[in-house]
Amino acid sequence: MFRCKLMALDSHNPTSFNCKDETEFRNFIVWFEDQKIRHYKIEDRGNLRNIHSSDWPKFFETYLRDVNCSFKIQDQQEAVDWLLGLDVRLEYGDNAEKYKDLVPDNAKTADNATKNAEPLTHLDVNNPDFKPGVMAMANLLQVQCHDDHLVMLKAIQILVQEHLTQEAVAKANQTKEEVEAAISCDCTTVL
């Protein structure tokens, strides 16, 4: 699931990383903080490095909050994916000049997928907060995770459309019209 990102980030075991193996997972988090993200000062990483501690999950939860990750420890795969995305952003930020002329192989495919999504066409899928936002919505709506966040977004769209009754849509449109009318009335009174 994470192989491509791990390879791009020069991880020590990109092809065999198993997020479900607790020891491997904890070692990965420590290595990742030490070598890649470096959010904490070296002297502040002790609790995270103590992978055999029964309190390690609590320290990891604190770490996730400290790096502004919206996922919890029980969402291990999502948290790892989010941390990998953070590192990609940090890596790019540190070496933007190095990457400025590179064009991804799938750029045309991503553009076509975005254009074909119809109501989703105006979303900025390159925004660093886009993928974590889709993951958070998927978790909230209990949509199954997928490697491609655009596929997950399409599944969310379908779920929402199927669950919106005509009555709910009519009520939302009525409320929208009332708000627009109230705004236009307020604007004319001010003038």
Automatic annotation (TrEMBL):
One Pfam family recorded for the sequence: RLL
Domain of life where this protein originates: Eukaryota
InterPro entries registered for this protein in UniProt: RTRAF (IPR019265)
Family: Belongs to the RTRAF family.
Name of this chain's protein: RNA transcription, translation and transport factor protein
